[in-house]
Design a protein that fits this description.
The chain is of the alpha/beta class. Among the domains are: 286 residues, no CATH class; 55 residues, Urease, subunit C, domain 1, CATH 2.30.40.10. Helix content is 52%, strand content 12%. The strands form 4 sheets. Strands 1, 2, 3, 4, 5, 17, 18 and 19 form an 8-stranded mixed β-sheet that branches. Strands 10-9-11-14-15-16 form a 6-stranded parallel β-sheet. A 3-stranded parallel β-sheet has the order 6-7-8. The longest helix is centred in the first third of the chain and has 31 residues. The two termini are 57 Å apart.
Length: 732
């Protein structure tokens, strides 16, 4: 032990005499720290976590490959190791001393970087600092081991420099150490999963951004430990005291052997893709961590209040402050300025009634339609249109839950998604007709994904509880029995009451699809949270609206789908020609739908829709009287129905309301705060208030005077990220 301590002391003295050691351990990383810090405006938000991870990885790479590998070769060529050979010592103490020396030399730099980040750039001290230091320690040991193998297998300084560069350069440029991983295309992200430095970047950023511990980065940590053991063992076996001792070329393959754990991790990630997903999520968090001040705009707060000239400070994905007037100097807030004079800022819009996997029309080859891929694209279309939250009220359960995880985590960029899960209906009830033409061997699985058909009260309770355990956000039941040429079995009221009761017990909002007054009456009596559609064929009594207002039941009139049904039955495709629809709708879908409407193939479908009694005058009258009785109104479009294309759905729904005589401010509140309240999310969306998510829509003009201004989008901010709308459809 005394010999080891003496070696460490001696090694430190030799290292500190070497100017290159000081340069690569301190000056080199610190140079990058200040360059990256200034270039990335690290004082404005989460960019400092990127800067720190970049600088630490550059330092660890230099410490291991240059500080251990190249320096050991230098000492061998300078005959320093020859002097050790004549003493009673084995290579083991020298290797261990090199590792300890590297750690002692580099850790002060780690503390210095965090200190500078805190005092110069205002970054809070990391909550998981212990895990970070442990992870960095493992990384130092692992890369010192790689460096020691490099020293063992090369025969000259020139050869060492070449091999170091072959290892160093790819890790430097492809791991995220110099260029953020957010800049990389999908295929290159796969390549990065084979590089040890990538796992260091992801691990350190995860600990800084998400307060992760070692457990969340267990595989990279174990790979570093394995690399250290294998590397030091091989370096011990191949250790050479003198430059005259040559090694055969095949021994260089040990460099590949020591990197084998990361090769295995890379191949595993090609299959599992968890590392790629984590990289995307952290890139998203970084993009949402900026600080900026939107100023000089009219602000529709969401609850009816309007600030005619105000400013909003966004920091770390949240609304930090709302100011009347221009607000403080952005420089004093370390914020970028976004000028918005002549514009209006609203909370991100919300559509509470969509069928995300339904296309809304016809593709030329419907057999190639992939609902899961379509869901992701549709959520991107909503975000493009300033609709930052949508609620699915009828989609395949497994697919919608998977998509919800991908998008809400930030792995894919799209509107935030909530889901009601499968539809509760009767055998032969509305919802079952979609699968009549499907072969029996496929029908049962589709019905399992889309429907719940309870036959007893106990089964109804059990099915609701099962959906609760799968973390759905709400429950949807269908009472409508249809009309005209489309008549269905109606859900038994005792079963419906059981569904409603259990949904309330499980604290799940209950949405009820209604078609006539009897349906609305039963929904209100069961204290549903929202009535969907109301009725397009019967006048809803004032007394029912009064009860809805007293009980806080929301009304979602979905005028959009009523209009679309009439237009589709008449063969009119005007709804497809709206500017925003043209921007977000897949061209093959828009063209295929127009073509299908002119063909004989949809004649029977159009005839069936024409027979369904949709009276827009009745629907409008119901909406106006609901407003008159102070019922809480929300905006849903029934997107996915024919001609209701996913994307700018809420804008058109509000336009129909205003045409019907509803004040623009009421329509805007229905699409923001009211919708958030229905979804029990008003504590983070639907309202421009400090502490809420920075989901903002900036438009040109004043929608309170001209509701069509809601489609003139200037900027979409989603959870603090200023969305590059042109790139939303290029994610895959």
């Amino acid at each position: 032990m005394k010999a080891l301590k003496a070696l460490i002391v001696l090694d430190l003295k030799l290292a500190l005499r070497n100017k290159s050691v000081i340069f690569f351990n301190y000056l080199f990383p610190l140079t990058f720290f200040f360059i990256f810090g200034q270039a990335m405006h690290a004082d404005r938000g989460a960019a400092m976590t990127v800067v720190i991870s970049m600088v630490l990885i550059i330092g660890i790479l230099s410490n291991g490959l240059m500080g251990a590998g190249v320096r050991a070769v230098q000492e061998r060529e300078a005959n320093i190791l020859r002097r050790y050979k004549v003493t009673p010592i084995t290579p083991a103490p020298l290797l261990i001393a090199s590792v300890v020396t590297g750690w002692i030399l580099y850790m002060p730099n780690v503390i210095l970087i965090f200190t500078l980040a805190h005092f110069l750039y205002g970054m809070p001290w990391p909550q998981s600092i212990v895990s970070i230091l442990i992870f960095i320690t493992l990384a130092i040991i692992g890369f010192r081991a790689i460096g020691m193998i490099l020293a063992a297998v090369v025969n000259s300084m020139q050869e060492s420099q070449l091999i170091v560069q072959l290892i160093y350069i790819p890790m430097l440029f492809l791991s995220g150490a110099t260029f953020p991983l957010s800049m990389f295309p999908q295929w290159l992200l796969v390549v990065t999963q084979f590089l040890p430095a990538t796992y260091m970047v992801i691990g350190i950023q995860g600990m800084l951004l998400r307060n992760e511990g070692i457990g969340a980065n267990l595989y990279p940590a174990l790979a570093l430990v394995l690399t250290a053991f294998v590397g030091l063992f091989v370096a011990y076996k191949l250790f050479r005291w003198e430059k005259e001792e040559k090694i055969r070329p095949a021994a260089k393959l040990w460099l590949a052997a020591v990197l084998a754990p990361f090769l295995l991790l890379g191949f595993w990630q090609m299959h599992a893709r968890t590392g790629i997903a984590k990289t995307k999520i952290m890139n998203r968090q970084l993009a949402r961590g900026d600080t900026f001040l939107i100023r000089g705009a009219r602000i529709f707060v969401g609850d009816g209040k309007v600030i005619e000239n105000g400013s909003i400070l966004v920091r770390g994905g949240k609304i930090a402050e709302v100011y009347e007037g221009t607000g403080p100097d952005p420089k004093s807030l370390h914020a970028e300025t976004v000028e918005a004079a002549g514009k209006t800022i609203l909370p991100g819009l919300i559509d509470v009634h969509v069928h995300l996997g339904a296309p809304g029309g016809f593709y030329p080859e419907m057999s190639k339609y992939d609902p899961e891929k379509a869901m992701l694209r549709n959520l991107a279309a909503y975000l493009y249109s300033g609709v930052t939250t949508v609620r699915s009220v009828g989609d395949g359960l497994d697919a919608i839950l998977k998509v919800r995880t991908e998008v809400n985590s930030g792995e894919d960029l799209g509107a935030e998604l909530a889901t009601c899960g499968p539809l509760f209906t009767a055998a032969g009830g509305h919802g079952t007709e979609y699968f009549k033409g499907v072969p029996q061997n496929l029908r049962s699985n589709l019905e399992k994904q889309f429907l719940r058909i309870p036959t007893s009260i106990d089964q109804a309770d059990q099915q609701v509880d099962e959906l609760k355990s799968q973390h759905v956000d709400c429950i949807k039941a269908i009472l409508e029995a249809g009309a005209g040429g489309s008549v269905y079995n109606r859900l038994d009221t005792s079963l419906f009451d059981a569904i409603a009761h259990e949904a309330h017990v499980d604290s799940l909002p209950l949405s009820v699809h209604t078609g006539d007054v009897r349906d609305v009456t039963d929904a209100v009596q069961a204290r549903a949270n929202s009535v969907e559609h109301g009725s397009f064929r019967e006048k809803i009594p004032d007394a029912l609206f009064e009860q809805m207002a007293r009980d806080g039941i929301f009304y979602d009139p979905t005028l959009s789908v009523g209009e679309a049904m009439k237009d589709f039955a008449a063969g009119k495709a005007d709804l497809l020609k709206r500017s925003l629809v043209q921007q977000v709708g897949p061209p093959e879908l828009l063209q295929g739908t127009e073509a299908a409407m002119d063909s004989s193939e949809t004649e029977s479908l159009r005839k069936s829709l024409a027979e369904y009694p949709v009276d827009m005058n009745i629907a409008v009258d119901n909406l106006k009287r609901a407003y008159a009785h102070r019922v809480s109104l929300v905006t849903g479009s029934d997107a996915g129905s024919y001609l209701v294309i996913h994307g700018p759905t809420v804008q058109h729904e509000m336009q129909l309301w205003v045409q019907a005589g509803i004040p623009p401010a009421v329509a805007l509140q229905a699409a923001t705060l009211n919708a958030a309240r229905l979804m029990r999310s008003e504590n983070h969306i639907g309202l421009i208030h400090p502490g809420n998510d920075a989901d903002l829509l900036v438009i040109d003009g004043n929608p309170l005077e001209d509701i069509t201004a809601i489609e003139r989008i200037s900027l979409v901010v989603f959870k603090g990220e200023r969305i590059d709308r042109t790139e939303l459809f290029n994610q895959h």
